[in-house]
Each structure stands twice: as C-alpha cells, then as structure tokens.
Queue: 2 jobs
Job 1
Amino acid sequence: RAKSAGSGLFARYDPQMHSGLVERLQLGADLRRALDGDANELQLHYQPTIELRTGDIVGFEALVRWRHPVRGMISPVDFIPLAESTGLIRPLGRWVLAEASRQAVAWGFDQPGRALTMAVNVSGVQFDQPDLPQIVASVLAETGLPPDRLCLEMTESVLMTDTEENLAVLLSLKDIGVKLAIDDFGTGYSSLAYLRRFPVDTLKIDRSFVERLTGAAPDAALARTIVQLGQSLGMATVAEGIEQYAQFLALRRMGCDLAQGYYFSRPLPAGEAGRLLRDPAAIAA
Ligand code: C2E
Ligand code: MG
Ligand code: MG
Ligand code: MG
C-alpha cells in the first residue's frame, strides 16, 4: 500500500492504522493465551430453539463468548474474524465443538427418545481444512454425542466458494451423520441449483427478514418465500431473531418449523440454559 501511494518504501505514519495493527496483534496474542490457558475466558452461551407448533425446546445453539481480563466481554462478531485471520479459528473451532458436545451429553441429548439437537457455528475458514470431518468424528467419539444430535451451521459462502472441495467435506460430514444448516439464509447469493446439490437439512431465515414482518412497512414476502423454499426442498426452516409476539404468530402461520430469538430467550450461560431445559414453562411461547 505504501508503494502504490508513490511514497517509496515507507508508509506515511498513520497513528490510527498503527494502533489498529498493534491492537490486532495484541488481541491475537491474548486469544492464543485464552485458548491455552485455563482461566475460562472463553465460554459458550446457549440459545434455545423452539418448535413453533408446540412451543417445545428442541435444542440449543452454542454461541462463543470471550471475557477478556482487561477489555471485558468481546463479541464473537469482533474476535471470530481475528481468529480466522490468525489461524486460531482451528483450535477455537475444535474447542467450541467439544465443549458444546460435552454440554449436550451432560444435558442428556444422547438419551434415546430425547430429540434434542446442539447447533454449532462453523466458520468458512474451517471448511478450508479438509480434515474437518475427522475433527468432528473425533469430538463425537470423545464426548459420546450421537452424530444426529449435532447440527453444524455454515453461511452461504461455504456453498459458493471452493464449491467442489466444500461439497466433498459436506458429504463426508453427512456420512458421519451430523445435521447441516445454512445460517443467515437469504443474505448471500446461493442459487437454487447450489442449494439442491448440497446435503443441507435446515435453512435458518436471517433475522433481517423476521424484522421486516413488523415495523413501518411490513413485508412478509421474503420470509414466506424462504419457508416455502425449505418445504419444497424438504428442509426444515428456523426463523432467527424473533423479538415480538406478532413475528412469532406470522412465522407459525407460514408453516415455519422452528425459531430462536429474544422473545423466547437470550443466549444463556450453561447453568441457566440447563434450568430452562428442566423447566421450559419459563419460555414465552
Ligand atoms: P449467528 O450464528 O447468526 O447467531 C445469532 C446471533 O444473533 C447471536 O449473536 C445471537 O445472540 C443473536 N440473537 C439471537 N436472538 C436475537 C434476537 O432476537 N435479536 C437480536 N438482535 N439478536 C439475536 P452473537 O452471539 O453475538 O453471535 C454473532 C455471530 O458470531 C453468530 O451469528 C455467528 O456467526 C458468530 N459466532 C458465534 N459463536 C461462534 C462460534 O462458536 N464459532 C463461529 N465460527 N462463529 C460464531
Ligand atoms: Mg448460527
Ligand atoms: Mg444466524
Ligand atoms: Mg444472523
């Protein structure tokens, strides 16, 4: 960048750029330490998934949290990209998988007759590693979670970039028997043709389409289209980010299968999520 600016070898000093770089390096070192250490800086919170027809809890999504000793809570929106650019997503991703699977077994997801699913977010960068299926298989073996109790969430970009390689990885994951979901569905550019080729079980309708159901200029067309798309492809649909009763009703009427959102529950620390599972009357639906 310095060269293209025509200023020779050295970049003009930009305090903002400098502090940004130093900050990222420092934060990367901190994240490495958090992963190695045993101070429990990294934790998972769990947000329930609700069956719209019955109001039952049918599972949880694990969402990573980083309690930095100096900066306090750092959002995954801020540190997942850092983990991706530093390669730390690999150990972090494995840790999330193992911790969520261990928790699922502790909650009895492995018991026959309890049809509960633990969903884990998997970064596109993790799909660049062809050994992702082996990692998943070894975590399942270590924790004893049956494969069909685990759902891996990925974004549409996994379908659209390195398509052939990622398709092979997804087919191996299906062979293991885990469920696959497309997160934030509708925000990317995946075509119908792609969607058909990939062994996807679930579409998660992005929160922006749920938001549009209510508000100043209500619009139900996109949410309805995704629900119908899921139905015609034999995929379950999950609405993300339900905050209002009216959104809950609208999606249930459309035939959407499942939902998550603050209306039901925020993501909770393991202890509180476990209490909710034992006493689901606390759920708004
Ligand atoms: P996501 O997988 O789409 O997760 C949903 C996000 O929406 C979560 O934010 C959740 O707390 C939030 N949310 C849930 N219900 C509502 C609602 O009713 N209203 C609003 N406004 N928000 C709601 P969070 O936990 O900050 O995570 C953000 C993103 O970070 C996730 O989006 C996911 O892409 C990523 N992420 C989180 N944990 C992990 C992880 O373990 N691994 C990877 N690779 N990514 C993760
Ligand atoms: Mg997700
Ligand atoms: Mg999402
Ligand atoms: Mg989303």
Note: Residues 67 and 244 are 29 Å apart (CA to CA).
Job 2
Amino acid sequence: SKAISIQNLSKKYAGGKQALDDVSFDVAQGSIFGLLGPNGAGKSTLINILAGLVMKTSGSASIWGFDIDVNPRNAKASIGIVPQEIMFDPFFTPKEALELQAGLYGVPKAKRKTMELLRAVRLEDKADAYARTLSGGMKRRLLVAKAMVHSPPVIVLDEPTAGVDIELRQQLWDYVVQLNREGVTVVLTTHYLEEAEQLCDRIAIINHGKLIANKPTKELVGMA
Ligand code: ADP
Ligand code: ADP
C-alpha cells in the first residue's frame, strides 16, 4: 500500500552541504502527494536520490516496495521522473523522443504507445516538429509523456509549473489529475502552497533539509 517509503534519509554533498537531514515519510498508493519547501530546502536532492542521480549518505528509500539499493532496476522501472530542467535533443521530434524512450524500456507496441501519449498531452499536432520549436509548456508536457512511456505506477514531477503560463499550467494539471484517476500515484514538488493545496491529498513540508510537517492537506490549510 506504499508507493514510496523514505526512512531516515540523509544527504551531505561532498562540499559539506547537508541537503537532507533524517527525512522519513510514506506516500500512499493512489494519492497525490505534495513536497513543499522554499528554494534550497532539499526537494530536488530527494527526487534525484529516487531517480538514482544522487547517492544518499544514509537511510533508505523504496519505490513500489523495491529498495533503491537492493532492487534499483525494479525501483527505477516503477517510477517516472519529470525533471525540473528541460532537456532533450532540440533536433528530435516528440515522436522520435518518445519512441526512443520506449525502445530503452522495451515497451511493446512502441509506436501506438507514443501516439497515445502525444494525444494525452495534446501534442499530436507537434508529433513531427523539432523539439526546439516547441513552447516551454509544450516541452514540459513532452517531458511528462516521456516519464509515462513505460507506464510506471508512480510519477514524480519536480517543480512542474516553474516558468509555465497559467493556461498551460492548467492543462498540465488536468493531465496529472487524469493520470491519478487512472490509478497513478503522483508526487510533486513546488514552492507554491496554493498549487499544492489545490491538487494534493497530503502535503509534506521540508526546510533546510528537515521534514517539518506531513499532514492531510485539509489539516495543514486549517492551521495556516
Ligand atoms: P561535489 O559532489 O564534489 O560537490 P559537484 O560537481 O556536484 O561535486 O559540485 C561541486 C561543487 O559545486 C559543490 O561542492 C558545491 O559547492 C557546488 N554546487 C554544485 N551544484 C550546486 C547546487 N545545485 N547548489 C549549490 N552548490 C552547488
Ligand atoms: P530545492 O530543490 O528544494 O531547491 P536542492 O535539493 O536543490 O533544493 O538543494 C538543497 C541544498 O543542497 C541547497 O543548499 C543546494 O545549494 C545544495 N546542493 C544541491 N546540489 C548540490 C551539489 N551538487 N553540491 C553541493 N550542494 C548542492
């Protein structure tokens, strides 16, 4: 019943910065979970540890029951990460980018899956355009589609609406909510309480690497 379980997780960078300090929390399957905190709080570090991009210093983390150290491949296969930085080849088209990703994960019926995802994120008209010609919001939606290519049960979005205008933000949220209705567990980081309030069932707040709250959204908002 736990989509993600994080126990006593700490990260101290080589430079000496303690980015995470003894953080523990669980994300329930089927929920939309918000990780809130100001810039520099440690949110990206936490996500990068789940993504396998940053090595933790101590503690443990599991995704869909798979420990990231013991079963890293199964853990990775259970999660789709939408990174904060937009990065893909500017001369790849959305269709090519998704087909390539599908190939990496050995997804069956890659072409059909690609078209399905392009429709879902409303990029079917841009299927054959160079990624460099897409707007910021379109690129972000392409990243969401890319994270969903292997149909993971959990998707994590790191500051998904940074630099996205209000209309595109709404389209992104509509898609995320739709995924959640279809059973996908969603974790998102944001530094906007308002955004987390609207979307999340539960919100954890992190500051200076420490977890300072973890409550159902209603209780948290009641306190403010
Ligand atoms: P290291 O793991 O040795 O710190 P990095 O290449 O990650 O190696 O970073 C080198 C140095 O650059 C770090 O020690 C840190 O001082 C600084 N640094 C890198 N990324 C960041 C960041 N996102 N925020 C603050 N400082 C950073
Ligand atoms: P957030 O995503 O909440 O803005 P981060 O996880 O990016 O926070 O950063 C947490 C802290 O760790 C910050 O003080 C940041 O400068 C530092 N940091 C991030 N990456 C590195 C790095 N590679 N090396 C050294 N310090 C880093």
Note: The longest strand covers residues 2-12.
